[in-house]
């Protein structure tokens, strides 16, 4: 194959393969719309390169304009997709300003003051500015993992490629003649090769990131209770153990609240399982709302729930339980008031999680025995093996 034809088809081929790959990923994970945006962006990239080399269908000027427009669309779409992966608000202002200024100046140097070199500079500076906008967004998430760090570095490299490489090569090469001279110029050759390398590196990183997203989603599904949206028992215990490990060196208090819906079987028997499911979802919503970002709530049994409260002593944990109890006590099921009972224990020094849960369960049992719809707090001095029960009902 002729070297010129090979270079002409290199980037479109890479882009179309990547478009198909990201499109297939999106078909498998349709909740991740950024994958579809990436696929469209790579299709636009392929169109941009093809129109530079195959101008006959549109004519030279129309092909140049369409190619430049396709490149601009591709850069904006791929940049937006990278940022949207992190559920961040798209930096529309930054991308919009760079794209608009670039397009306006490109039009000026295409129709008014016709200058090929300045058109090249304008487009590359716009693409470089958009890459810097992406890098600025990625800076805030760089500590999430290696994929984020690599994406940040690649965004900076892309910006340098668009701006620094273009300036250096054009300075060394000097004036470029007509379109054929452009296609055979050192600038265009280095642009195609550097784009191919950066595209493959970026795609590899994005594929890795997408794979990590899948693994995280599967892990989340295996650790989440579908009905309540809280952690299931396995997920709760893993999160609780991690939290205990973080809190252990600090010596700060950690408390556990166990909750059990009162007479839940009667709700199912009288009103059906659908109503029982609604009650569970409602209670889970109250737990999640009161726990906020600090607490770790989970559904660890049919109608039994647990919330680990780092940095909370017995008084704070009791206030939490009373708040949940009062909030949930306002709800009704088929005209029947539904309540919950709570047991609380605070972590003793070097106490394992299962022992903490056992003591909280003992307190919960006492709340049930005392008439339900109440809160019981138990404190154990492990060194003396004594227990104090601090009862209470609202």
UniProtKB/TrEMBL annotation:
Catalytic activity: 2 GTP = 3',3'-c-di-GMP + 2 diphosphate
Superkingdom to which the source organism belongs: Bacteria
Alphabetized GO MF terms: diguanylate cyclase activity
Pfam families the UniProt entry points to: GGDEF
GO BP terms, alphabetized: cell adhesion involved in single-species biofilm formation; negative regulation of bacterial-type flagellum-dependent cell motility
Regions crossing the membrane: 6-27, 34-53, 65-83, 90-111, 117-139, 151-172, 192-218
Keywords of this entry: Membrane, Transmembrane, Transmembrane helix
GO CC list: plasma membrane
Domain GGDEF stretches: 252-380
SMART domains in UniProt: GGDEF
Positions in coiled-coil regions: none
SUPFAM superfamilies referenced in this protein's UniProt entry, alphabetically: Nucleotide cyclase (SSF55073)
EC number: 2.7.7.65
Protein name: diguanylate cyclase
The organism of origin for this protein: Manganibacter manganicus
């Amino acid at each position: 194959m002729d070297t010129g034809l090979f270079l002409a088809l290199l980037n479109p081929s890479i882009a179309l393969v990547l478009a198909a790959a990201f499109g297939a990923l999106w078909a498998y994970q349709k909740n991740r719309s950024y994958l579809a945006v990436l696929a469209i962006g790579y299709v636009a990239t392929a169109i941009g390169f093809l129109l530079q080399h195959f101008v006959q269908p549109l004519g030279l000027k129309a092909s140049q304009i369409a190619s430049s427009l396709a490149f601009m669309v591709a850069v904006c779409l791929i940049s937006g997709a990278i940022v949207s992966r992190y559920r961040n608000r798209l930096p529309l202002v930054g991308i919009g300003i760079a794209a608009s200024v670039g397009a306006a100046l490109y039009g000026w140097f295409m129709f008014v003051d016709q200058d090929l070199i300045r058109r090249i500079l304008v487009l590359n500076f716009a693409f470089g500015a958009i890459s810097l906008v992406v890098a600025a967004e990625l800076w805030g998430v760089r500590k999430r993992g290696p994929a984020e760090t690599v994406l940040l570095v690649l965004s900076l490299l892309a910006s340098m490629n668009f701006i620094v490489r273009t300036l250096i090569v054009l300075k060394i090469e000097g004036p470029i003649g007509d379109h054929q001279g452009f296609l055979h110029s050192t600038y265009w050759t280095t642009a195609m090769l550097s784009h191919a390398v950066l595209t493959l590196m970026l795609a590899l990183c994005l594929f890795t990131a997408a794979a990590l997203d899948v693994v995280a989603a599967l892990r989340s599904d295996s650790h989440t209770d579908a009905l309540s949206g809280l952690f299931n028992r396995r997920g709760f215990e893993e999160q609780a153990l991690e939290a205990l490990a973080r809190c252990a060196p600090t010596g700060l208090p950690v408390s556990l609240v166990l909750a059990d819906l009162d007479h839940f079987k009667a709700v199912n028997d009288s009103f059906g399982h659908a109503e029982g499911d609604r009650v569970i979802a409602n209670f889970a919503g109250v737990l999640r709302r009161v726990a906020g970002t600090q607490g770790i709530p989970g559904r660890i049994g049919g109608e039994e729930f647990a919330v680990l409260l780092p940095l909370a002593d017995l008084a704070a944990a009791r206030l939490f339980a009373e708040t949940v109890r009062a909030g949930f006590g306002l709800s009704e099921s088929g005209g029947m008031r539904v309540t919950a009972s709570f047991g609380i224990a605070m972590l003793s020094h070097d106490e394992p999680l299962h022992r903490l849960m056992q003591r909280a369960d003992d307190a919960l049992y006492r709340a049930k025995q005392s008439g339900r719809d109440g809160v019981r707090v138990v404190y154990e001095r492990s060194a003396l093996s004594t227990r104090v029960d601090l009862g209470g009902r609202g």
